[in-house]
Write a structure and sequence with these properties.
- The chain is α+β, with helices and mostly antiparallel strands.
- The protein contains 14 helices and 24 strands.
- α3 packs parallel to α4 and α10 packs across α14.
- The two termini are 51 Å apart.
- The relative contact order is 0.09.
Length: 562
Amino acid sequence: MASAVEIDAMRRALQLARRGPRGLNPQVGAVILSPAGDVLAEGFHRGAGTPHAEVDALSRLSPGAARGATAVVTLEPCNHTGRTGPCALALIEAGVARVVYALDDPTDAAAGGAERLRAAGVDVESGVEAEAARALIADWIAVQRTGRPHVTVKWAQSLDGRAAADDGTSQWITGPAARRDVHARRASADAIVAGTGTVRTDDPALTARDADGALLEAQPVPVVIGESETDPDAAVRRHPRTPLFYATHDLPAVLADLAAQGVQRVFVEGGPTLASAFVREGLADEVLVVRRAGPSRRIASRPRRHRGADHRRRTAARRGIRPQPRRRPAGRRPPHHPNPRRALMFTGIVEEIGAVTAVEPSGDGVRLTLRAPLSVSDAGHGDSISVSGVCLTVVDQGEDWFTADVMKQTLDMSTLADVAPGRPVNLERATAAHGRLGGHIVQGHIDGTGVVREVRPGAQWSVVRIGIPSHLAPLVVDKGSIAIDGVSLTVSAVSEAADPEPWLEVSLIPETLEATTLGRAEAGTPVNLETDILARHVQRMLAFRPADTTAASTAPTERGSA
């Protein structure tokens, strides 16, 4: 059993190991102790081709000074000859009597050092401070196991579920705190990866910076993947590390090449197409999802200024012409532009139970009239209201009612196809993204319908089991979020994956039973279902296939200037 002195020496060896670089070889530290427990020498590995930690420490001693000593090392002494000789043999030849190490070497080529030491009569003990040592070189161990770097894929989106603006422009989706976290993650990675599309559109620097915009000391190697050319003046070419460019879509080959260059951890921050490819090909070890607590400024559904009208006014002013006001035909209602700080999403917190009062044909759909005193109290033409989970737009309104058109596609996807006068419905006004999020993010886009199979009343709540379509089953997880008839609920149980008739269960408290139409549900009642937006994004990412999957090369095509 290791002594207190040896444990302290191992902790010191771990500190020394951190001085070494991350790369092809692991970070390893060593301390040589005298028979009395005094420190004779210290060393650490300075990178591929340099002496290993044990040899580095021994080199600081005069010949014979290590005889009878104890070597404390963070990784099992190697037993192979590469660029340097076997460390186990060096310890034996130096006369070391005892070796204490933390982790067994996981590689076939270098393992066996402990066995060789024991065969030579050296006392060997392993497993001292093993967890700390494993945490230090976890990424290197992962590379030895998988043959590629550890991959973290970052996915950022706004509350409206988008990762980029419709017009191709790009804005920060996340806030300052999230960006600080991302830059810290960049600094901890060996390489940061982006696609040529992102580099062309956003011109990112791909650097790690502090809150003031200054470069951090640790910088990842920038990697650009894709067949499109990178602009000679692109910001990535001014990165403090030499960028790598891969003109290919063969991601496993890119990762293998990066591993061969000593890259242990990769941070993918290159847009939804590249992120989807990594996830789809099973190359994402970790997915970092960042949601903005509000819509992205250019991504939010806000009224956009019409450049044409502005241009006409500026041109007329330059020419000294007074533009004539555009006249609206008699009887035509002016367009309503909702407040841009409203009408962005729902939260699944029902505000009132309304009722359908009329159903009239409207094109290939229907026009509904609904009694909704609270919902119309501050609603205007064009605003959004959730009707049993379906996002509908107000086209007309009165003191306590409003009308909305429902297209055929929505009728086919929801329970509104069977709506009739007198039917109660859950109503919720759209919520401002800067407001309080009471439930979860609900878009009002129904994924399908389910049918209540049973209701099990309890002393404090009722459990409702709902049969769901098989294509929605993968999107529903235990303890995940779901909207049922517009009500934000937590899934309390799900069927087995192999169940041919999938179902989910939710528990309803008395307040929910009283304040929503779910309190009237019974076996056979159809309900609208909206799954969590993140689940749908991941499903889409896994299904997406790039148009061109031909690999052009597995090696960098060019190297930018430092």
